[in-house]
């Protein structure tokens, strides 16, 4: 793999990470859905979620109740 290809992968990873943080902090669940495939598997300790709909059943109410943000918005 070339350094240019590696740089492209790194940039895409940063873009996804920033979009994830932005989606959570702004409660933009439509954006959040675009960051994963519909068949995503999310695993929390003792709480596995299979599929976007199943994950968001837990994820959205939890985050909507949060009054803080975790990520710097630049």
Q: How would you describe this structure to a colleague?
A:
The protein is mostly helical and 74 residues long. It has helices at 3-26, 29-34, 52-64, and strands spanning 41-44, 47-50. The radius of gyration is 14 Å and the shape is globular. The mean pLDDT is 90.
Briefly summarize what is shown.
Helix content is 58%, strand content 11%.
Q: Main sheet, how many strands, which sense, barrel?
A: 2 strands, antiparallel
Strand order within the widest beta sheet: 1-2
Mean pLDDT, rounded to whole units?
90
Structural class, from helix and strand content?
A: mainly alpha
The percent range for helix content is 55-70%
Cα end-to-end separation:
32 Å
Please give the oligomerization state of what you see: single chain
Q: SSE string, helix = H, strand = E?
A: HHEEH
List the helices and strands and how they pair.
Elements: H1 3-26, H2 29-34, E1 41-44, E2 47-50, H3 52-64
Antiparallel strand pairs: 1-2
Q: Which features does this protein show?
A:
74 residues; mainly alpha; two-stranded antiparallel sheet; 2 strands
